[in-house]
Design a protein that fits this description.
This protein has 2 helices and 6 strands. β5 and β6 form a beta hairpin. The chain has a domain at 24-102. Strands 1, 2, 3, 4, 5 and 6 form a 6-stranded antiparallel sheet that branches. The relative contact order is 0.20. With 115 residues, the protein is an alpha+beta fold.
């Protein structure tokens, strides 16, 4: 009986660690766009979108760094944490929030509600 319980506990531990190891990381972004001539109107906020998925958090974070380098080549970029403010001349600026999240987390919130 004790051996059976120990085997069951060991199986549960192994299953949990295997599931955690298979966790994918998702690179999400959300833009708030501000166009010239809109004065004090709030920026147009877009929905969260997936850029890509990765096998590890480190790979996802490397992709973020690569994207930020690409943005710097085409626009003025100010990076602050999960946010990047991207300015394309005087006509358009984008406040981009970019996040690496486990595939179990959806920044849009729970399904079934306001989505």
């Amino acid at each position: 009986m004790i051996a059976t319980m120990m085997a069951l506990i060991l199986a549960l531990i192994l299953a949990a660690s295997h599931t955690e190891a298979e966790c994918a990381w998702v690179l999400w972004f959300q833009d708030s766009v501000k166009r010239a001539g809109t004065g004090l109107l709030p920026p147009e906020r877009q929905e969260w979108e997936i850029i890509d998925t990765y096998k590890s958090k480190e790979q996802c974070q490397a992709a973020v760094a690569s994207l930020r380098e690409e943005w710097r080549r085409i626009a003025q970029v100010i990076n602050v944490g999960d946010y990047a403010h991207i300015v394309f001349g005087n006509d358009l600026s984008i406040h981009r929030e970019i996040r690496c999240l486990p595939d179990t987390v959806d920044p849009r919130g729970p399904k079934g509600g306001g989505r």
